[in-house]
TrEMBL record:
Entry's family note: Belongs to the sigma-70 factor family. ECF subfamily.
GO MF term set: DNA binding; sigma factor activity
A Pfam family recorded for this sequence: Sigma70_r2
Limits of the RNA polymerase sigma-70 region domain: 20-82
Keywords linked to the UniProt accession: DNA-binding, Sigma factor, Transcription, Transcription regulation
Limits of the RNA polymerase sigma factor 70 region 4 type domain: 126-174
Gene Ontology terms describing biological process: DNA-templated transcription initiation
InterPro entries, alphabetized: RNA_pol_sigma-70-like, RNA_pol_sigma-70_dom, RNA_pol_sigma70_ECF_CS, RNA_pol_sigma70_r2, RNA_pol_sigma70_r4_t2, RNA_pol_sigma_r2, RNA_pol_sigma_r3/r4-like, WH-like_DNA-bd_sf
Protein name, UniProt field: RNA polymerase sigma factor
Length: 185
């Protein structure tokens, strides 16, 4: 019976540690996989792995610890798959607006503003999906998950200087993709 109480305590501690970061984990997973269903699977696998190794957590930034597990789970799965399965195509319909953003735009009375905003979002999402994974990863962690350089370095297991370099290059590439797309219209 003591074992079950220990399991309950472990589950409660794990939930307290990780659940506040579920949205960040899903956000990273979605941008890594570029598919919401694959992102759900990735987060589930990462949470199972995190639960299994929760006893090895030694404190510190729980969000960075969890995002590291999400990232490593993704790259492990990617490495273990055949090359043709690793290429996940980008589907704008699956990455469209959600939740509060959709409600806010529906509340707007200016159809032209709604369409312009949707076009801008679509353009940014398409440009972001074209970035190489290493650049997309640091850009998502910095701009969407609002991690510090130190946290990104921890998650991606790279030096802080590499984080800054990749982030600068990612922003430059993203801008060039956006400019190219705008010139093509």
């Amino acid at each position: 019976m003591d074992k079950h109480l220990g399991d309950d305590d472990k589950a409660a501690r794990f939930e307290q540690l990780t659940m506040p970061h579920l949205d960040a984990a899903y956000n990273l997973a979605r941008w890594l996989t570029r598919d919401p269903h694959d992102a759900d699977d990735l987060v589930q696998s990462a949470y199972l792995r995190a639960y299994r190794f929760a006893d090895s957590y030694r404190g510190g930034d729980a969000r960075a610890w969890l995002l590291t597990i999400v990232r490593n789970t993704f790259y492990t799965a990617l490495r273990d798959r055949k090359p043709q399965q690793a290429d996940v195509s980008f589907d704008e319909a699956l990455h469209g607006m959600e939740g509060d953003e959709l409600l806010a735009q529906q509340a707007s009375s200016d159809p032209a503003a709604i369409m312009a905003s949707r076009d801008a979002d679509r353009g940014v999402n398409q440009a972001l999906s074209q970035l190489p994974p290493a650049f997309r990863e640091v850009l998502v962690l910095k701009e969407m998950d609002e991690l510090s350089y130190k946290q990104i370095a921890e998650v991606a297991d790279i030096p802080i200087g590499t984080v800054m370099s990749r982030l600068a290059r990612a922003r430059k590439l993203l801008l060039s993709y956006l400019q190219r797309d705008m010139a093509g219209e």
